[in-house]
Structures are given as C-alpha cells and as structure tokens.
Give the backbone structure.
Amino acid sequence: MKDLKIKNLYFYPIKSCQPIEVSSVDIQKIGFKYDRAFAVINSQNKILTARENPKLLNISSTIDDGNLLLSTPEKPSVSIDLNKVLTSKIDIQIFSDTANAKVVGSETDDWLSDTLNEKSRLVAIHSEQLRRVKSKYNGKENDFISFSDISPIHLISEESLNDLNSKLESPVTIQNFRPNIVVSGCAAYEEDNWSSITIGDCEFEVTLKTPRCKFTTIDPITIQVHSKQEPLRTLSTYRKESNSINFGIYLTPKKIGAISTTDEIIAAR
C-alpha cells in the first residue's frame, strides 16, 4: 500500500468543539498533543458533548504560548492563561465513568454558560491520573486516553467517506465523524483490515473499528440533527456488526514522536 497518503490531520482541544487542522503534530501516548485535553462540564460535573448540547460545535479554540482562546462567530472571544488557571482536582463524569480533571479558572464560566445556555465550566485532563482504555476496547495495561471517547486516535479513509456519500441523498463531510487522521490511496473500508500503521517514525496499533453514534447525525455547520438520522441510518444497512455500526478505525500509539502530512504512511494487515 505504497500509494497511501495523509490528507488531513485534526485535533480537537475541547471535546465536542471545533477542530484545528494542522500539517504536523506531536504524538503522545494518549494521542495527538492537546487532543480532547479540555472538556466542558455542567452543574452536575458531567462532561457535555454535542449529543446533549449541539451548541458546543459553534465554539472554536486556539492554543498559543500557553494561552487558550475560545471564540464563536456571534460573540467576543475569551482568553485563558493555562499556566496560571489550572487549579484544584475534581471528579467528573464522562458517560458512565468517573474521571479525574483539573478545573480551569472561572474566567470562562460565564462565557461558556452564556454560549451554551446552561451553567458550564471548563476542565482540563489530569495528566497524572489518566483514564485507562477499557479491556473491552482492546486496551492494554499501559494504554491511556484523555477525554476521547474510547481510544486515543481515530482514522478514516477518504475512499470510505466517498463510498458512504454515494449512498446518501445529501453528502456529509469528514467532520460528521471527527477523525484525527484522514488518509487516501486505498480501497473503501480497506482500513478495517489493517493491524498496524507506521507514519514517519511513529508506530500505531489498530485496536478496533470505530462504533458510531447519533453524533454523526449532527450537521457540523448548522448544528441541526438530521431529520432522517443520516448518515447513521444508511450506515446501519451495510456497516452493522452485532450491535455496533462501524465506520473508521481506532489507533493506539506504540512508538511516539511527531507526524506530518508529508510523511510516508505504511499499513500492515
């Protein structure tokens, strides 16, 4: 598979918010640097995702010189000095699990609460008390994640997206699926059969196919839920295995470093 190329690299500083596209990125044991390093919690200390509050998809963020800048098209931005505002540890709920986090100072509380129309706070991953990848998702003893759903890195091929769109009345974009890596140069769904991937000097183990949920039915631009639950409904007709509708694959870093869009990528079965 020497024709494989990296089309896009994305990371999502705040869970369920807008991505940042880059040409190169540092790879850590928990995935892309700064990927899902922050999350928004509600008044019950539960992480909010766009499944519960699609307005999160309106929020963009940038990280520069230790400052996190939040913005939306409708209101002035807010900036936080991350070197000063990471405060006390807090236990939070992410889906059905409890996780450790650090509170980001109150500078963002009002801004987030007003943007999302509910009481909200920003938290950061507790780097010394990370979540383990669950064994049911093929996690091993030293496999950890940030605020990602179940695995460190998510990959989709452009060919798989094109095949899906050929079956839909209205095409969707890659951001309906929020990948970290988009590749091209393979057959549609060929990634299902890979066991490992090397990108530049970094190595990744393919751990499982990516199970999809209703998040995929939220338009990333209009933030409206599709009236016919597309593309999930169409995917269910040909990508369902047991109780899971799969699209894309999850990767776990095994040799860390940095990758770029110009790196050679080699996939092994």
In short: Residues 5-268 form a domain with the M1 Pyruvate Kinase; Domain 3 fold (CATH 2.40.33.20). The helical segments are 82-85, 109-116, 158-165, 232-238. The two ends are 10 Å apart (CA to CA). Residues 64 and 81 are 10 Å apart (CA to CA).
